[in-house]
Amino acid sequence: MAEKDENTPKPASVTSDDLSGLTDDERRKRGRAPDPVLPGETAPKAQPPLEVHAAFALAILAALVVVASQIVIIFFKHLLVDAAMKQPQQPGHALTIEQAQTNVNFFVWAMLIGALCFGALLVLFAWKAREGTRSARSIATLLAVLGIVFELGVIRSLFSLIASLVLVAMLILLYLPKVAGYFPKVGKNL
What we know:
Blueprint: H1 24-29, H2 50-75, H3 77-86, H4 97-130, H5 134-153, H6 158-174
Helix pairs in contact: 2-4, 2-6, 3-4, 4-5, 5-6
């Protein structure tokens, strides 16, 4: 029998490192393509650190606080109408009570819809970050920073302070050095 040359490539079924059971991001970290999932099979689930679980829970809490603050504003929209009517009016452009009610109604409902969209996106990307996706962590970070700026810059209330503190705590947990290995940096091969 002839000896096999050590430089000959091995068949695809024989590899030096076993990649079965790894998540897609763990496979990408090693420079491999995601493992295909056949019908009837379940994809392997990542085991996130406790800090990442806590960050996801804080994202849910922040989304709930932001939405709750907008729901509370709906119940007090008559105060916004009163404040709009007390504003100094320009001569010839008097604001009627009906116009003020229409403007406030539109503003309040637009803010509620915006809060629902913000909360849904934050929770979605925090969920994906919980699965170990680095780009989802980046988008969740961007959403959290935008939420903090909006809550502290535009709306000032107890709800906005609580939501901002929760978002800051979420960001701290997502960027602890302890969890850095959970979010692998995917290398680019050109």
